[in-house]
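Protocol step 4 of 6.
Sequence for Restriction endonuclease subunit M (Thauera aminoaromatica) entered exactly as in the expression construct, tag removed. Do not edit the line below.
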Amino acid sequence: MSSPDQETQAPESPLEEGKLFDYITGKSVKDTDKEKVRQRIARALIHEYGIAAEDIEPDFKLKVLGKNRKIDIAIFKPGLPHTEENLYRAVVVEKEPKIGTKGAYRMRDPEEARKEFELLEAVMAEVESCDYGLWTNGLEFFFFKKEITRFDTKFKPIGDWPLGDDTFSVEGHSMGRLRRAEPDMLRIAFRRCHNYIHGNEGMPKDAAFWQFLYLIFCKMYDEQQPNEARQFWVGAFEPFDPAGRERIRKRIKPLFEAVKKKYDSLFKGNEEITLSDRALAFIVSELARYDFGRTDVDAKGTAYQEIVGTNLRGDRGQYFTPRGAIRLVVQMLAPQEHERVLDSSCGTGGFLVETLNYMNKVFHDERHIKSGEEDTEEFVSIRDRLASYAANNLFGADFDPFLVRAAQMNVMMAGNSLGHLYHMNSLEFPRGDLPGVQPANDNIPLGSIDVLMTNPPFGSDIPVTERTILEQYELARRWERQGDGFVMTNAIKPAVSPEVLFIERCVKWLKPGGRTGIVLPDGILGNPGDEYIRYWILRHCWVLASIDLPVESFIVEANVNILTSLLFLKRKPDEVIQAEDLGQKQDYPVFMAVAEKVGFDRRGNTLYKRHPDGEEILRDVSVEEKVRIGGRLETRTLHRKERILDDDLPEIAQAYAAFRAQHPEPGK
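Step 5 output, structure tokens:
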């Protein structure tokens, strides 16, 4: 599926094996590790920095150090010929380094990496008009500004480039205006921050994660302040000077204190930012450039999930749900603005954030505008409406307090509100003594939820054995066959797999007519010994849909080899159950699908759609780019070709919508 800001035409010509399309020129180039980095940088230059594609040239040839050399990316003054005298900025690209076995890469400072810059500095020295340089390997980014004195030419490290053809003020709050993040670049920025803390500071991964989270909170809070009161900014040269780094700390420390006071339900008050001045300056510099409020919700969620996924994986069957499956569940349940949404095993908040992403698109569609193209009034209106939705209708619960906290940050970053996330055992609820139980009883008692979506912990190796929990559940009892059905006995089983109990809990949490989408292990829908569970489901619910997922769905993103299904149910009112018990049953159609491909193979390699002869299928896309020239923004249309992800899930979502258009939900 194309993204909302793309106009897609019919698939076009095939792409040769081992090739990809250059985003600058639209021509095919060899697919190498280095080229992948260059393409990410090219997209960022166009979409983040506002540099026109026609002012950029890959592999620009010029004579440097007595040899004919190629500059990986050359940027020229707006609208001028691509000649050496018009060269304004230069980028040298290397392939991304391998990450060590500990999962971290130690980030170098400019002095440690000095030998890497020989070509870049030579270009900047010999080309008079070339004022700015960038050297990157995809993980490390070294920006430079040329300074010429009477006696010397220096290449001073700076935290970032200015936007478009802007310049920066040394005394200014940043290198340029805040900008909407390109998804890949935000993901890499998050990785760089976490790598720096873990690899350079020597912190354990989990400690590094929370330090990073504190600064994300500071950034989000700072964006809500008036411009003149903002403190989350970095001067051009501050990260590279001890006094400058100290000034950054002096701004961030009181900001974090203000954050802890505002979100006192989330912070104990004794948390501290323990990073060194150098690490703090690095991370603030990475995050300060972006406008988190205007950055796409999905981009923020993807970047955040990548960091979370390497740090907070549980050991109680808590498998993080793949984003494609999450998106499918939300699209099929299609929550409405007035409906209360709950994830009873919320983990890091994937379903909740995707719900916010879905509602954000709904709000934009109602105004007939695209995300990122709003004027200030429209942006503030939609932002506040989304925050109100999160504050009133978004709920989550998890047994792991660290995951609850991580989910709160995820929801905050997506919706500008903490939502309502409770630290409690959803299977023990409404009982229990964890801190989230009482507020959850007040706000989301059983029978109060419109839409419930969840991926509960499952597995026979983590059975529920507590009798105080088991005695609450009909499915924890032994069932005996009676005629064509089953009858429940009073005998309680000594142990039950958690996913069985979660089915009942999810249904009982719904209002009559409420809808749920649950990730379940494949066996529960097919094992002969689980027939009584299916009987209970059919008695209490209408089955809306059942979708089988391939093993690739979880093996890459959750690192677990398991076949799963998505089960969609709608709770029947008691009067319908009673009528059906008396034989007044009505047949209804059920949507069923099997997903064979989810966009990647078992090793995590991205898969694209191909013609029968094996060549990749391409489509034409038109993307609006905002170019900054002379301090003004100009909108232009960029026409490019792109490959099509080989993913059945978006097509299943479309097929379900068509199915429902023909067959309304039962119970309506």
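Step 6, annotate. Residues 1-12, 169-176 have pLDDT under 50 and may be disordered.
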